[in-house]
Each structure stands twice: as structure tokens, then as C-alpha cells.
Amino acid sequence: MIRKLRACLPAVAFLAATMSAVAPADQTVTLRLGASSTLVLARPFKTMLIDNPFIVDVHEIDDRSVVLEPLDLGAANLVLIDAQSIAITNVRIVVLHAREARQLH
Question: CATH number of 24-104: 3.40.50.720, 3.40.50.300, 2.60.120.280, 2.60.40.1080?
């Protein structure tokens, strides 16, 4: 019985690691092509990670704010990490045509 449990430990560790890596976004930001937006944080960040840089470009203003510039239609995730390597926020960014974004409101 103990051997079976030990054999399962690597699989359980792998499952736990992958589950935390795909945590849902803290918030969703909808942008339209041609219209940039500023994202302001309550805490300073050190590192920006973007999973799809062809959809949105991220420009750092200072350690608490960034400008999101939509480049193409689609979706991307932005993770901002502090100096202690802790994720501050995970933002889902959706870029729509200008016409579609107006219809959502």
C-alpha cells in the first residue's frame, strides 16, 4: 500500500503544479483596436509576462502602471509580478473591433 502511495506522489505533485499555473484571471479588460488603456495597480511590480504579444503590447509607465496597446483581434493574459516573485495580478485582455466593443456597452 505504501509503495502505491509513493508511486502516486509525482503525479499528484505534477497535477498540483499545473493547476496553480492555470489560475483564472483576476480581472478581464476589454479593449478595442486603436484605443489604448492604462492599468493602475495598488502595489508596485517588477516583471511583466504577456502570453501573446501579437495581440497587445504593454508599456511600463512606472512601477504601478502600464499602458495596454491593442495590436490585433484576440485575447492575451498579462501577469504582473512583484520583487519577491509573487504574482500581483493576472489580467485577461480581450481585443475587439471598435464596432463590437461599442455594442457590448
Answer: 2.60.40.1080
